[in-house]
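Title: Comparing notes on inverse folding

I've been comparing how different people in this forum approach sequence design from structure. To keep things fair, I'm posting one structure and asking everyone to reply with a full sequence. Here's the target:
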């Protein structure tokens, strides 16, 4: 039990170190072009990257400790994979940072890492034994390399997003401004869901439903008020919330898996809290979110951002190819007797790979740089998020246990 508590404290400390690093990088972006290289700004950048490295080391310690406790590499469920994706993103950022020394990149990457880590913490964190399909050395080989590739893609997304904000973020109208603001809404949804999840966890909220899974009666514990009940579920213990004494509806029958209703409930809470938070922010600042953050991007060179976007994807693509396709197919053959089966997770991994293949082809052969390159980098990471959230949590398949 002491090791489990130590592991929890390490993750909490990692969260706050990443948060402090984000603040330091934001401070490192302040000032005019004339004092861009002043001692004060360089100091904040050094503090930011130093704390980021310290957080990454503590995060690595958390991963090692979880391996020692659980006996397997921690990438077997949504919490573990999302937490490891945060670690991979930080490692990719550190590599890119020392190549380009961009404080603006850290001012956007680290807040997103904080939000993703908060999102990961919203899922059950207890250590469970591996199901038979996951008892293989390919678990850490396949998942870690795929996650490292996605971490590099996340850095490319941020660089492309900053590029677009600098070019179009000050605009109040137009297609470019609309889609940029849509991405900000998605980010706010992550923030809202992470915040409300941690709030209910702190208050000790819990409700329990009983339902059948594969003919066996099991309990499903809710840490957020149940809007969605398991299909055929029976309320066992319901903690009322704002007059809500039971779920409003049941999960559809086609959503299989023990935690299908719980994950759908999480998605609905993300949409609700994100929408409320976004409306509150818009009423408070009276402008688009992209207009609010646009001043942070004024000093960085657009050509540098474009190069960072390409370099990050060039680093991530071979890693993702190995992990998400080659190693995944080898493991699929070992576990299920076939290399490919068009499972939803496999299909979306292929879609992601094809998308980034098209990015590299269009950039190198057709000269798609600048705005086109930035939008492709942003779109690619949106596909990754669809794979991470929608495919993992809602669409049934052989990977539903994740």
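Reply #1:
Here's my take.
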């Amino acid at each position: 039990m002491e090791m489990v508590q130590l592991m929890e404290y390490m993750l909490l400390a990692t969260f706050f170190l990443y948060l402090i690093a984000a603040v330091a990088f934001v401070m490192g972006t302040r000032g005019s072009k004339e004092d861009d290289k002043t001692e004060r700004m360089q100091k904040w950048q050094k503090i930011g990257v130093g704390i980021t490295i310290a957080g990454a080391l503590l995060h690595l310690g958390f991963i090692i400790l979880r391996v020692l406790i659980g006996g397997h590499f921690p990438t077997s469920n949504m919490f573990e994979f999302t937490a490891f994706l945060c670690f991979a993103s930080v490692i990719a950022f550190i590599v890119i940072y020392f190549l380009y020394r961009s404080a603006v990149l850290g001012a956007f990457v680290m807040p997103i890492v904080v939000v993703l880590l908060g999102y990961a913490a919203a899922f059950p964190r207890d250590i469970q034994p591996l199901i038979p399909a996951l008892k293989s050395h390919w678990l850490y080989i396949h998942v870690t390399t795929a996650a490292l590739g996605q971490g590099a893609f996340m850095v490319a997304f941020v660089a492309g997003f900053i590029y677009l904000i600098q070019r179009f973020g000050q605009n109040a109208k137009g297609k470019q401004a609309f889609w940029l603001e849509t991405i900000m809404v998605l980010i706010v949804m992550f923030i809202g869901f992470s915040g409300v999840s941690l709030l209910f966890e702190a208050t000790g909220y819990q409700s329990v439903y009983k339902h059948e899974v594969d003919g066996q009666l099991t309990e499903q514990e809710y840490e957020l008020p149940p809007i969605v009940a398991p299909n055929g579920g029976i309320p066992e213990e319901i903690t009322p919330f704002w007059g809500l004494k039971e779920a409003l509806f049941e999960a559809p029958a086609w959503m299989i898996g023990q935690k299908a209703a719980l994950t759908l409930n999480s998605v609905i809470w993300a949409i609700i809290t994100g929408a409320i938070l976004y409306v509150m922010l818009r009423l408070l600042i009276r402008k688009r979110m992209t207009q609010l953050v646009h001043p942070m991007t004024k000093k960085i060179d657009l050509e540098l951002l474009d190069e960072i976007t390409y370099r990050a994807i060039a680093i991530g693509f071979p890693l993702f190819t190995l992990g998400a396709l080659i190693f995944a197919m080898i493991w699929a053959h070992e576990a299920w007797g076939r290399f490919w089966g068009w499972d939803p997770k496999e299909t979306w991994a292929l879609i992601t790979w094809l998308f980034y293949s098209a990015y590299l082809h269009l950039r190198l052969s057709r000269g798609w740089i600048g705005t086109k390159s930035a939008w492709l980098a942003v779109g690619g990471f949106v596909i990754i998020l669809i794979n991470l959230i929608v495919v993992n949590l809602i669409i049934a398949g052989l990977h539903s246990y994740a």
